[in-house]
Amino acid sequence: MRILVLNPGSSSMKVSIVDNGAVSHTAVWPAADVGGDESAVREGIERWGRPDAIAVRFVHGGSRPGPALVDDELLRWLDRLGPLAPLHQSLSVEVTRLVRASLPGLPVVACFDTSFHSGLPDAAARYALPRAWTAQNRLRRYGFHGLSCQYAVRRCAELLASPPVRMLCCHIGAGVSVTAIRHGVSVDTSMGFTPLEGAAMATRSGSVDPGLLLHVLATGDVDVPGLRDALYHRSGLAGMTGTTGDLRDILAARAAGDQAAGAAVAVYLHRLRREIGAVAMSLDRLDAVVFTGGVAEHQPGLIAELVHGLPLLGLEIDTSRLAGTGDRLISPPGAAVSLCAIAAGEDVELAREATALLAAPTHL
Ligand SMILES: Nc1ncnc2c1ncn2[C@@H]1O[C@H](COP(=O)(O)OP(=O)(O)O)[C@@H](O)[C@H]1O
Ligand SMILES: CC(=O)OP(=O)(O)O
Ligand SMILES: [Mg+2]
Questions:
Q1: Which of 64, 76, 162, 224 gets the most CB atoms within 10 Å of its CB?
Q2: Which residue's alpha carbon is at the smallest distance from atom 7 of ligand 2?
């Protein structure tokens, strides 16, 4: 089956063709270029020809445990979740509308980041908030980057002689999250009700004392839309440095002696290590840690820096392996914990989920 895969991320729009499970074409557009003219999707369709089906990544799918065939009603419901993932959800809705109009008659499958975490243990999923608020089970921790985690589990098992039972998936791209996985199942994760919780990110703040936010709303010159904009678009590495938050530029500035860039990277790494430490505590031991996402893939030096600041977890890096390319083991032979660098494979998972859904007898 030939699947056109659309993966709107917060900094990029990734479009691929996955042919019987293998990625045959792929292109990445900066997110800012996507919106209005939707050129990325149109170009993908025109360049690569008609697929058999389309799979679209939606970061928020509420408590849905798996993918779903798109119809008008589902699309309206997904659109209503927009405010819970403002950097992603409306873009996913927009590109879905576009492909439905451009390729009428083809099945479109929505795949959700949240599904992988839909079975989170209650203690990890709930917030310590008034009971009445959480009664309908909506104000819970949903978790994100689930499609990336799913792929990391599969790929890590291929790279290691024996599949890891207890692992962490550190997805480090424009969005950053850490997930603890036992026997392939998510048991805790750093993102929560929205993809704003947890580590500091390219433009997102990550977790901030809710008391600070109340204080800013009560005393600062900012309303709720202004606060939302600040936390999603103008915080994180971007906010701390006054740049776009692209780590390529920030690391180059740090190397050139820019102190603000150096301080921002220190905060970014510190907050990520805290999330790794916190999430790891849901496992009784650690067999493997996967580093994936754009930053993990392209900035191995930063991964080494991250790991060197985690002596308590006993992680070791093999610098000669780190300098290699492709999906690989980056810990030394015989290390207690296997460290793996894996290119994010959300597109493969999206195609896999779409193929399985469309082959299911209930779909016929
Ligand atoms: N050489 C590189 N190429 C692409 N992205 C890079 C590179 N080095 C670092 N990055 C970082 O990776 C991030 C993109 O990661 P990615 O996982 O593709 O993000 P998203 O899916 O959220 O759009 C960028 O914000 C950028 O800072
Ligand atoms: C959930 C999320 O933040 O996704 P991305 O890293 O692709 O922006
Ligand atoms: Mg992404």
A1: 64
A2: 9
Phi/psi of residue 60, each to 5°? -110, 120
Residue 155 lies in a domain: no
Question: 3-class DSSP state for residue 262?
Answer: helix
Kindly list the distances between the CA atom of residue 219 and the CA atoms of 209, 212, 228, 230, 342, in Å, as whole numbers in the listed order.
16, 10, 16, 16, 45
Examine the predicted complex and report whether its ipTM is higher than 0.95: yes
User: Where in 146-184 does DSSP place strands (E)?
Assistant: 166-172, 176-182
Query: pLDDT digit string (tens) for 174-190?
Result: 999 999 999 999 999 99
33 confidence band (pLDDT: 50, 70, 90): low
Place of tokens 């991250």: 306
- Residues enclosing ligand 2, CB less than 6 A? 9-10, 59, 113, 144-145, 173-175, 195
For residue 37, what pLDDT is reported? 46
Inside any domain, residue 109: yes
- Out of 246, 292, 342, mutate this one to test ligand 1's pocket (max ligand atoms within 8 Å of CB): namely 246
Q: How many domains does the chain have?
A: 2
> 246: annotated binding-site residue?
yes
Indicate whether 237 and 320 sit together in one domain: yes
Strand partners, 168: 180, 289
pLDDT of residue 361: 74
> Is 8 in the same domain as 131?
yes
pLDDT at 162: 82
pLDDT in tens, 110-142: 999 999 999 999 999 999 999 888 776 689 999
CATH of the domain at 15: 3.30.420.40
- State whether 133 and 197 are in the same domain: no
149 in any annotated domain: no
Summarised one tens digit per residue, pLDDT across range 216-250 is 999 988 999 999 999 999 999 999 999 999 999 99
Asked if residue 123 is part of any domain, the answer here is yes
Q: Is 113 a catalytic residue?
A: yes
